[in-house]
Each structure stands twice: as structure tokens, then as C-alpha cells.
Amino acid sequence: MFRQLTDRIFVAPQITVGDVTDAAQAGVTLIINNRPEDESADQTSGTDIEIAARAAGLDYVAIPVTHAGFAEWQVTAMADALAKTDGKILAYCRSGTRSTLLWALAQASKGEHPAVLAEKAADAGYDLSPVTAMMDMLRGRAS
């Protein structure tokens, strides 16, 4: 269920409270929720995930992303969250796509090459083409 982008970054579709235990057992130390609350009736609430994460000794941060796209504050918040720990991180949304795209934007903003990021995402089954131009712009700013 968890798809690996790097040795320490994983993404997933919507997780449940039970998945938090699996994440903790896999060595995850931080869960990043990229899904807005009430996006669908069947999703586990961020509050429930946060409670389960904290009970398991994990950190938790919510950086909700709607289908409207990405704002600079979200990219900055994701970059800050990724830098917050040297441990494993699990980011999730409805399908894992928004989490992967936001991860790539955050990494590009720190100077990582978009082609390298695209390869890592593709290996996990995700396509970064919707944010290629934004990655290039962010990487250009980081130089």
C-alpha cells in the first residue's frame, strides 16, 4: 500500500487508523496528510489519523491540497515538514498523487533536478508531468 519514492519518503492513498500502526512498524516517524477534510464521505478524518499517529509516537502534520492546485505556502510547508526529521515519512491523499506532486515541488524548491524527481516518482507509479513547469521554476529560484 505504501509506495516508496526514496529510502525515507513513502506515499499512499487514503490511510486508515490501522495503517498508522503499519507505518509505525515500518519505521515511519512522521505522517503528512495532504487531503482536505470532507473531500469524500468515506475518508478517515485527519483528526482520527492524527490521534492514532500521536498515540503511536509519530509526528503528524496536515498540509491539505485541493484539486485547485498548489500554492507557495503548501510547497514551503511540505519542504519544512520533509526537513523536520531524518526518519521515514509517509504522506497521503486520496490516491497518493497530490502527495507525490507536492513532494516533488518541495524537493525542486531545494534544488533537486526535476528529471531525477520524475524518475523516482515514475518508479513508484506516479507522473510528475502536471507540475514540470512549476518544478523548473522552483529549481531555478533555488539556484
Automatic annotation (TrEMBL):
One of its GO terms (molecular function) is hydrolase activity. Pfam families: BLH_phosphatase. It comes from the Bacteria. Residues 2-109 form the Beta-lactamase hydrolase-like protein phosphatase-like domain. This is TIGR01244 family phosphatase.
